Give the backbone structure.
Amino acid sequence: MEDLRTIIALNCRNEDAPNASEITANVPIYDCNKLADWPTDAGQADTLRRELADVLLNGPGVFVLRSAFADTTPIDAATDVFNTIIEREKTASSGGGDHFAASGANDRIWNSLEKLGREAPDVFVQYHSNPWLELASRAWLGPAFQMTAQVNLVHPGGKAQTGHCDYHLGFMTKNQVSQYPAHVHAVGAQLTLQGAVAHCDMPVESGTTKLLPFSQTWPQNYLRFRDDDVSEVFEDNYVQLPLQKGDALFFSPGLMHAAGENSTSDIHRMANLLQVSSPLGRAMETIRRRELCLCVYRAAVEAGLPHIEQEALLASTAEGYPFPTDLERDPPVDGLAPVTQRDLMRSALRENWPFDKLSAELAAYENRRSPA
């Protein structure tokens, strides 16, 4: 416990996050309006990715991208779609619960990524072509990451979650976690990235995420976050930041955190929670990416996105990792690996394939990857 107390007493200095516009409560805040050109400049993008990775690994473990959506039109459009889905799923009694919170405290949409793409392909394209989401995800996970998302809507009076770490090891019991060697605990936090896009203005009173900066560097975090003495340290030392609609919060899954209590009377706090996975691990949700690709293809063609935005869209839509596959039926092409679903989508957009051709190519791709 003394190790934990020593760790969380650290401070994030300006030299630890030199491109942040400010550091508040040990959380670097990056003004995306001031850095608007950085995602499209290879050198600046690489500099920023390296900095964000160091913040997540060795620094406070969390950062905010202020105005990641400078234009909040896609946020508002997605919010309307999500509210429609929530009402429909509540009527059908298929809505999801929440992790680490009392049942009924909120509304949840599981697999909001695919559902948004199916329900409103044009909105999906506007939303997931945001280059800041791609930059942050790639900073931690490298290329070919796997995007999933879940919407969380916390109503006035919604109670706080208990402090916890997150997927993978954070979703296991203490007994299960104890069966993994210590080095896996360290590696586990590097396989996923947690994100949250604010779909409304969020004062602290609405229950913004409670964060314990630097706690991701404590080697016992996954094993002990449920223990009473650790929970007490968390509750005595967490920080919270207000967020504005269009802001994006990213943090290490090893960081102790919890959604706060919504003590307001009129704010229905909606966030789209991004669960981004390394291709070297397994994603939390199963996404029917072939169907998703087909759902958004026409909208993507009509959007005529610039290269950087198209790549961001592809990163959230199509599978970018070639394995696992049946190498007998799906042999490597021009290297050590087969073509990916993302390669096919990229070719389709570049060459303006007819819809039927893309559909046939994606079907053949899945057939090749299936055991004979």
Observations:
- The CA atoms of residues 133 and 312 lie 8 Å apart.
